[in-house]
Amino acid sequence: MHAQRKTRTGTVVSNAMQNTAVVAVQRRVQHPKYRKFLTRRTRYQAHDANNECEVGDTVVITECRPLSRHKRWRVSKIVERAVKL
Question: Alpha-carbon distance 64 to 17, whole Å?
Fold first, then answer.
């Protein structure tokens, strides 16, 4: 039986590279001593095959095999488009 692939929901912060989007995923963690909740951010480089992502889009990324030195995630769907001004 195969393990379920991990998924994360985040915001596209850069799409300057070809076929790659940088996705920032935020999570809330509790400080071990002071018990205050802190917001932590992790940036993932995700494969965007058709260059569809724009900065500000909310996307779901899925874990995959290594595609390059830093890419281990793939954009599976765009949940919400960024508002154009």
Answer: 19
